[in-house]
Amino acid sequence: MPRVKYTDSDVALMARMMRAEAVSEGKQGMLYVGNVIVNRTASDCLDFKDLRTISDVIYQVQGGNYSFEAVQKGNLFYNRARSAEKRLAEKNLKFWRQFPAKYSLWYFNPSGACPPTWFGQPFAGQYKNHCYYEPQANTCASVYR
User: Fold this and answer.
1) Is there a contact between 136 and 144 (Cβ–Cβ < 8 Å)?
2) 121: helix, coil or strand?
3) Three-point CA angle 50, 68, 14, nearest 5°
4) Which of 47, 105, 130, 132 could form a disulfide with 100 if both were Cys (CB 3.0 to 4.6 A apart)?
5) Is 102 helix (H, G, I), strand (E, B) or coil?
6) pLDDT the model gives residue 76
7) Residues 109, 130: contact at Cβ < 8 Å?
8) Inter-axis angle of helices 8-22 and 83-94, to 10 degrees?
9) Buried b vs exposed e over 111-123: b needs ≥16 C-beta within 10 Å?
10) What pLDDT digit, counting tens, does each position of 57-70 carry?
11) Is the model more confident about 6 or about 145?
């Protein structure tokens, strides 16, 4: 059973975001970005309250900017989803979760080492250039389901 409800257009949208954010990190890196997208959709806490769909998550605006840099900068995000990335997105949506993004709600690509916290949340791990951060269990239990 999928962790969140989704449509074919959600799969394509998520695939576009995964590619735009992590194509240089290969399939594994794109799957980790997909984990974060699904986690934000499944959780109902912190900055991600009332986000119920993949589209809600990807087009979320915080502080006047889109949460995902690729939405505002364009680049690969505005290209059509390819079948390879769609398969990865569907894999995330159906079942795939893995460390360091298994419970992560945030990631970013720093210019140096990964800081021990991000927005007050602990560092979960790193994959290539991206640092992943998961919420403390007492602040967002829903992501751990």
Assistant:
1) no
2) strand
3) 75
4) 132
5) coil
6) 84
7) yes
8) 110
9) eeebeeebeebeb
10) 999 999 999 999 99
11) 6
